[in-house]
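Support request, please re-run this one:
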Amino acid sequence: MALIELKNVFKVYESQAGSVTAVGGVSTSFEEGEFTAIVGPSGCGKTTLLNAIGGLDQPTQGEIHIDGVNIVALKDRNLIDFRLQHIGFVFQAYNLIPVLTALENTAFILELQGVGKKERDARAMELLEAVGLADRAHNRPNQLSGGQQQRVAVARALASRPRFVLADEPTANLDSKSTETLLDIMAQLNDKEKTTFIFSTHDQRVIDRARRIIPLEDGKIKSV
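Re-run finished. Output below.
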């Protein structure tokens, strides 16, 4: 069984100007341990598709199965719990909590899960060491560079040992050196811990490192 399976997924937005199909009938699957990039120009639907996989956006039609569970059919509270337990997120804008330190940001998901402070701090520090930021554990986001903030975001995404990590344009705001450092860290985690990563990107640097490419055009998977 695939880790993730999409069956005829549509996302249609309605407005006064009419309907816009952001995702138009996507069917595909992802296996455990993949390092995959969903690629295409701005407006092709890749972020919408990633948000649907992550349960952040409800498809208009179709099914999304994660470990055999159709998340489209889950009620709001159950979907929130499912995301919390199974999915890690890395966003373009980092989305760190400004008043929390790097350690506290990394441990935040574990706190939501009810993990005790000693255990969650140990796990958070382990991950900050993995992303090369153990010496910045007590710095807040405004004391970190953009690249460092995104590395904290990766550590946070991995804290609860999710089934997979969704990374939406994670390098968009980073310079070349920070991008290469971030991609090195993700590739190492994929190799050593078999962490599954699915990116949405139009960054050639990410595309070059991906082991599988899914090209999207006008909301549909493009034939290659």
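The beta strands are 4-15, 18-30, 35-39, 61-66, 69-70, 87-90, 164-168, 197-201, 212-217, 220-221. The chain has a mean pLDDT of 93.
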